Amino acid sequence: MSAWIPLSESLPANGARVLCHLPGNIVHLPGKSGATELREVVILRFAKDFFLTNPSKTGYTGAPHFWLGEGTSNRFFAEVSHWMPIPETPRDT
Fold it and tell me: Global pTM?
């Protein structure tokens, strides 16, 4: 399996789905209980230079890139610190 790659070293290809490390990422669980869960590793899609090519979509002035979540995690993820390729699916031999 590949090692975690810091954003300071390299970024994924534009549009790539990768595993991301989000330190302290709290997710609200479904239902009305208000329960939460710590999920520091999630799959996100990388959008290179999203805010440079779509300046009118938001007033955001931070990093030029965007990390798109899937399902209920579709929000902006500024907390991504590391990423790695999604490992290949195991194959029966």
Answer: 0.73
Task: Find the distance separating the first CA and the last CA of the chain, reported in whole Å.
Answer: 19
Q: Other CB atoms closer than 10 Å to residue 47's CB: what's the count? A: 17
**From CA 58, how far away is CA 54, in angstroms rounded?**
8
- What's the one-letter identity of residue 53? T
CB distance 83 to 5 below 8 Å:
yes
How big is the chain, counted in residues? 93
What residue spans define the domains of the chain?
11-85
Over residues 43-86, the pLDDT tens digits come to 888 887 776 666 666 666 666 677 777 765 556 667 788 999 99
CA atoms within 13 A on the CB side of 85: 6
